[in-house]
Amino acid sequence: MSVKAQIEAIIYAAEEPVTLDQMAALLKDAIAAEEGFSLEDADARQRVKARLRQTIMDLTVDYAATDHAIEVREIAGGWRMATKPEHHDIVRAFAKSLKPPVRLSLQALETLAVIAYKQPITVPEINEIRGVDSSGVIGTLLDRKLITTGGRKAVIGRPILYKTTKEFLLRFGLSDLSELPSMEEFEKLAGESLKGELFEPVADATGVPDAPNEPAATPEPDAQASDDVRGAEEAQPDNVAVILVSAEPDSDDAEETKQSLSEEPVEAEKLASPLSSDPFNNL
User: Fold this and answer.
1) DSSP strand pairing (70-75 vs 160-164)
2) Contact assessment for residue 111 and residue 130, using Cβ atoms and an 8 Å cutoff
3) What average pLDDT does the structure give for the chain?
4) Fold type of domain 3-96
5) Least confident of 94-103, 145-154, 266-275
6) For 203-221, how does the pLDDT look when each residue is reduced to its tens digit (9 = 90+)?
7) Which fold has domain 106-186?
């Protein structure tokens, strides 16, 4: 395949404008082989980019002809293909006639995958595979015309069988069910996708991914603090003994305390004695 055809394919398939550096990284070997120089040469990079610019210029001229409805535009430092402005009305009318894109929940996609690989299949069998009730999801898929009924299974109760439709093939770009990826390929793709989502480092507000957590270093005990604590522990029994000894009452103090306690009820009796019945004596 020529370098010109490869550049045309890259620009056509890209959703965003393709830069010169992106194309140089992909096509440097093909350009060097076609031009007959080595990538080890000092001016190899300049020669690759010069060839790319010339080829893109040739493509731009080719698509500028009136018999082409598409043109190559230089946008935001890159190149992309777009329809020419004079075809705006017909393209807009066609876009309005298209069906809206199908948006399915994760539960609906799981159920649709089970039906696609196990069809024809009944709702109880789907529930057993998924581990949850799928009745509501089945109704959604029927409304979107992605599945249809396929008769009844010859068992007790005769449950309805479900299978995919032609609309399913159209939406997923399949010619027939044989183009479905095998279960091994499907599991591999799903595993890689989940692994990338779960283990990809996420940047914080500063734009820098979080560093792995490191175990905190255990601070070494201060030797002086240890000596102080040990000295306090050794001195504690003596202090306690001193406090207990000083707290013992003196013999003289004990006698005075007993005497004061014995005198208190007498005073209380004097205060509590009733008044004389003669009011003149009380005065």
Assistant:
1) unpaired
2) yes
3) 76
4) Arc Repressor Mutant, subunit A (1.10.10)
5) 266-275
6) 444 444 555 555 555 555 5
7) Arc Repressor Mutant, subunit A (1.10.10)
Output the pLDDT for position 266: 46
In this chain, the answer to whether the domains covering 3-96 and 106-186 adopt an identical fold is yes
Per-residue pLDDT tens for 238-255?
444 444 444 444 545 545
> What residue segments make up the domains of the chain, in order of their start?
3-96, 106-186
Question: Which residues pair with residue 209 across a beta bridge?
Answer: 203
